[in-house]
Amino acid sequence: QVQLLESGGGLVQAGGSLRLSCAASRSIYSFKTMAWYRQAPGKRRDLVAAITSAGSTNYADSVKGRFTISRDTAKNAVYLQMNSLKPEDTARYYCNADDPLNYWGQGTQVTVSS
Question: DSSP assignment of the chain, as one string?
Answer without folding.
Answer: ---EEEE--EEEETT--EEEEEEESS-GGG-SEEEEEEE-TTS--EEEEEEETT--EEE-GGGTTTEEEEEETTTTEEEEEE-S--GGG-EEEEEEEESSSEEE---EEEEEE-
